[in-house]
Design brief:
- It holds the Pfam family APH.
- Keywords: Kinase, Transferase.
- Helix content is about 40%, strand content about 10%.
- It is of the alpha+beta class.
- It folds into two domains: about 10-120, Phosphorylase Kinase, domain 1 (2-Layer Sandwich); about 125-330, Aminoglycoside phosphotransferase (APH), C-terminal lobe (Aminoglycoside 3'-phosphotransferase, Chain: A, domain 2, Alpha-Beta Complex), CATH 3.90.1200.
- The strands form three sheets. A five-stranded antiparallel sheet has the order 1-2-3-5-4, covered by helices on one side.
- The chain starts with 10 loop residues before the first helix and ends with a helix.
Amino acid sequence: MESITKNRQSPDTLRAMIARAYGPDEVPMPADSAEWCSELGHGWFNVAYRIRLRGGAQVVLKIAPPPHIEVMTYEHGAMGIELASLRLIAEQTTVPVPHVDYADRSHELCDADWFLMPYIDADNFGIVRDTLTPAERDTYNEALGAANRELNSIRGTAFGPLAGPGDPTWRHCFTRMIGDVLADGERRNVDIGYDYDLIRQVIADSQDCLDEVTEPRFVEWDLWDSNVMIRDGKIIAIIDHERAFYGDPLMEAGFTAIDLPAFGDSTAFMRGYGHRELTTTERRRRRLYTLYLVLIMIIETNYRGHTDTHQYDWARERLGEVMRLFRQAGH
């Protein structure tokens, strides 16, 4: 996926990064330039390279966006969030995640944070899912639900950023988060199809349901099929953790289809998660979380410089569906 946030670097810079992380003996020879490095193109935010070291091992290099590119408010410091998430998950759960071989936030070799990790020899669930049988997809989605539940077992001390300081209440935290998204859209004059103040009124009319959430939990939030690596009926690794925060686990991506069927079928995920039927208040919270998601999907197309309008058009349709849900519920 093409995006102006992708911070591509020259072969010489990539070699310097490899030397810093693994030592000069692992730097590929210049004659190998056609073979040792290739860009992994399915990411949406960071640039990622698949690299073969001189000794034969394969690794992945991720580089954060360049500092002169404006990103959405919630994306500030995203690579630091990912590194913190990987540490938390490895220390407090059994959910498989990549090991960080080396991380550099000095900006000495390039103008952004970057890190290296082993290449995961597995299939991307989002890419291969249509080649799987319905039973196979259900098996993986069940396993994903169970893994997501374990991720949500990580407790925080406040709501919001992993690094703190955070908010004492989820209501204050979430309304700030969605308010930031709306401010991002207004700053770029993004046409979302609705008056921004109308969206704010919908949020204000519904936010009392957020008070039911009193314990900050780790929320991966971006756990879509395309961030799940699979092999032989098992989840091999969960990747891309830069959007995590402490909040309400019901905000996880796997629950989104409860509100909008266009996001798939949540049955197997919920079965694996072990979640019962949602209460009335939980359904109200879910509508707010889906509203947050589709607003981001619309507005981010401007910040990433998309020239193809497919995502924008698709997300605009989803926003219409969410707003109908609020109207049907009397908001």
